[in-house]
Design goal:
Order of helices and strands: HEEEEHEEEHEEHE
Number of domains: 2
Subcellular location: Cell outer membrane
Keywords: Cell outer membrane, Ion transport, Lipoprotein, Membrane, Palmitate, Polysaccharide transport, Porin, Signal, Sugar transport, Transmembrane, Transmembrane beta strand, Transport
Distance between the termini: 51 Å
Strand content: 15-25%
GO molecular function, one term: porin activity
Strand order of the largest sheet: 7-6-10-8-9
InterPro entries: PEP-CTERM_polysacc_export, Poly_export, Poly_export_N, SLBB_dom
Helix content: 10-25%
Protein name: Polysaccharide export outer membrane protein
Number of strands: 10
């Protein structure tokens, strides 16, 4: 009886391993990499993203004006037109788009757009992962530096390998990796190790091997 039970268990594990190996043979495609429009700290322009509040003012047409929440699909629906794509655009670009749309209904529309509840698209957020005190995604601000970013995430953990950290940045559609010296910057106070951060940057901080 024991031999039969053991044989049955052996057969089960063979089938289980076959099933697992068959299921794991497929691979998911790589993530879609979105390049930020910002290539230097001087040319930064805020881009609207999902969950932002967009205020649209149409001169002399208060009934067409209002504040709208950008949906997760990056669009808004106004009182006159639906499904207007706004994510990934500047407020000025949205204003010009709305003028073109509204010109079909009113004569010479003049539109201004402002934004509140700044979230922005994922391509503009900065991410810190690994051995930071509070790793997370952060909304980018113009002239943000590595030191500013580390203050936002609470610095390094006790076991972080700060000088082994990497910065991943998409440059002209291709990912590039740069070395960082976080130990020198944070623990030694070497300001020369501070660098500019751009929208979409990812900072990866490994743990030290003892």
């Amino acid at each position: 009886m024991m031999a039969r039970s053991a044989k049955g268990m052996c057969g089960f594990w063979v089938l289980f391993c076959w099933f697992i190996s068959g299921c794991s043979s497929n691979t998911l495609p790589g993530a879609t990499v979105q390049s930020s429009l910002t290539t230097s700290v001087e040319n930064y322009q805020y881009l609207v993203g999902p969950l932002d509040n967009v205020s649209i003012f149409v001169w002399r047409n208060p009934e067409l004006s209002g504040t709208f929440i950008v949906r997760p699909d990056g669009r808004i629906s106004t009182s006159l037109v639906e499904d207007v794509p706004v994510s990934g655009k500047t407020p000025t670009q949205i204003a010009r788009d709305m003028e073109a749309i509204l010109s079909k209904y009113i004569r010479d529309p003049v539109v201004t757009v402002s934004v509140t509840n700044f979230v922005g698209p994922y391509s503009e957020q900065v991410r810190v992962i690994g051995a930071a005190t509070n790793p997370r995604a952060i909304n980018y601000n113009q002239y943000m530096t590595l030191l500013d970013l580390m203050i936002e995430v609470g610095g390094l953990t006790e076991f972080a390998d700060g000088n082994g950290a990497k910065l991943v940045r998409v440059v002209e559609g291709k990912q590039q990796t740069f070395e960082l010296r976080l130990d020198d910057l944070i623990r030694e106070g070497e300001i020369s190790a501070n660098v500019d951060i751009l929208p979409g940057d990812v900072v990866i901080i490994p743990e030290a091997w003892f």
